[in-house]
Amino acid sequence: MRQTTEINEKPKLFAGDYLKVWIANFMLYFSFYFVTPLLPLYLRDVFDADKAMIGLVLSGYSIAALAIRFFSGYIVDRFSRKKVLLIGFASFALFFLGYYFTFSLVLFAVIRTLHGAPFGLTSVSSSTVAIDVLPSKRRGEGIGYWGLSNNFAMAVGPSLSLWIFTHYDNYNILFTVSLVTALIGLVINTTVDCKYRPPVLDKKKMSLDRFIMLEGWSQGLCIALVAVAYGVLSTYIAIYSQDVLNITAGTGTFFMLFAVGLIMSRFFGVRYLSKGFVVRNATYGVICVAIGYSLFAFWQNLYGYYISAVVIGFGQGSMYPAVQTMFLNMASNDKRGTANATILTSWDLGIGLGIIGGGYVAEHLGGYNSAFLLSVIVSVISVVFFISYARKEYEKSLKSKVQTRQ
Asked: Angle at Cα 152 formed by Cα 151 and Cα 157, nearest 5°?
């Protein structure tokens, strides 16, 4: 009887404001992933850009997102989170209009770079609002399932965009779909009831820890290393598939299988996250990521191509929410925005370095095969560093926090 009562009293997770923010976040990332895989082809076909130039131009988005995320945690903690979310989401949506008028490579580079700023702000505020509206008893599960909104977007977005482009060969259609989807997400977020929080009036001198959670630097470095590998993969896989593997229509399937791995990891991993197995999930995750990139780089056929997608997705889906939970466990309630901003800043830094580094290596050091060897190297380094240092630092931090409370 007691167990039945506890189950009945357990608050619903996918309901109310959390569901609204979850769907809106799906729209945000769908808009992003819908155009991302085809932009390298767009730059090559429309502006005749070489490998290094493609990497340089596309890295601007991540650099802008990185720059704004350095401040976005403080902004989200200091001001109304819903207002910040709506302003960022509206700006993100409207920037898609600029892609219709990119008549030169320079103009495209400017618009694409500026577009990264509202994306960086919106992704931080969206995840922070989601944590605010989650029932406290189910916060661990909610954080784990939150990533599914990104994962579904990653599954549907690239696959659908590649299918549409194959049939219509029109980039403006892609930009229109992203614009409309982002606007739908904006409208949904306007209906979210985010509880009023009095602004944080920080009278202390401004310091770096108001923008970046310094105690999480080692976990952030692990995230950045994994993101370097993913930056190479997500940016250059379409060209690599065509030019090296002669796979002309498989990129959409790759992303679909990648997302299947992500989704599988969430359903398996959330259960253990809610039981406190944070370090274990993160450890298994970084190991799977390294194995997946090794399969992709060294098993160069259809089997290796598709199996690696599932393995990388499973590893990334296991690691990311676990490391995010580490950040939130180390942060106080008034620094949730800073914690979210720090992990996302680490991710953006890695993505930007991966795009630039992958393009440079592909152009000057042996083509796309060498670029994906870079993914293998950095993912292996992330495994070694996490196991030998980062997870131990996290455990020390938690012990110190418990002792301070006592």
From this structure: 105
